[in-house]
Design a protein that fits this description.
EC 3.5.3.1; arginine metabolism; Ureohydrolase; Arginase; Arginase, Chain A; 317 residues; hydrolase; eight-stranded parallel beta sheet; alpha/beta
Amino acid sequence: MSKDIVLLINRSEITAGTRGASLGPDAIFTAARKNQKSFFVKYPIEEIKEVNYLLDRPTEYKFAKRIDGLLDVYNSLNDKVSTLLLNHKFPLVLAADHGSAGGTLAGIKSAFPTKRIGIVWIDAHADIHTPYTTPSGNIHGMPLATVLNEDNLPCKLNELSEDTIQYWEKLKQVGGIAPKALAEDVVYIAVRDTEDQENKIMERLQMKNYPVAEVRAKGVSTIMNEIETKLADCDSIYVSFDVDSMDPDLTSHGTGTPVKNGLRPEEANEILTLLAKNEKTVCIEFVEVNPCLDEKVNKMAEVTMNLVESVINTLND
């Protein structure tokens, strides 16, 4: 059954440690125009107001940089995504950095407060740090912790200011429901660059990761069948695709934190199209294309454009 797609653009890049991801969504549009792809013009485009002016100011939140602005982004996404879903739209999100993904998930939970949400997180990184455990203070490493309402205090490294604590609690509570999802309903694919604190919380919560080697050994279709079984009790599924899940040698280094030995673009395409075919999937998000870091002249955006096109075609089957 064809989905009523809306392209939702979020250019805020305030949670990353590098600059340029705000240009990612437009780089994907540029790649589409260069390759004479017209599929983007077929769908309505809506935008979240960006808050990148905060990058021009110092942040007082050492262990949660610009968390005050991120709270605004979360609230905006919560309102927009929930409204789209309640109007039977399919949000296909093109975002800058990964830090805002918790706001997308807040919107899904706000739309479906009694439903159980499954999460397929395709990424080189686990993104489950908290202000208490972060080595960098960059919140693009924390979105899943906001969704799971986790502080990971057993691995605490940092002493937080009272203001930081208050903002962190507000971030986790966006939409008025916390947690938004259960750890048992999160599946990682291709995660291969984690810190000790993340490893420990993943082990404590028994979170499943499919490393690239396992994807190849079993095959994508087998992995997808296992994920479908694991998430069988979920009512809705959200898919988050970070382009650094792919091998930079096969794509480019046009992303903030590239990691070797990732997925092949063909594997990513198969994974995403099978997830798009799943009737439970209600939202797919693409993040972290950064043309400023691309040594191959917008190659990452071109690869991502092809993936987006495949997802759109599948959603329209």
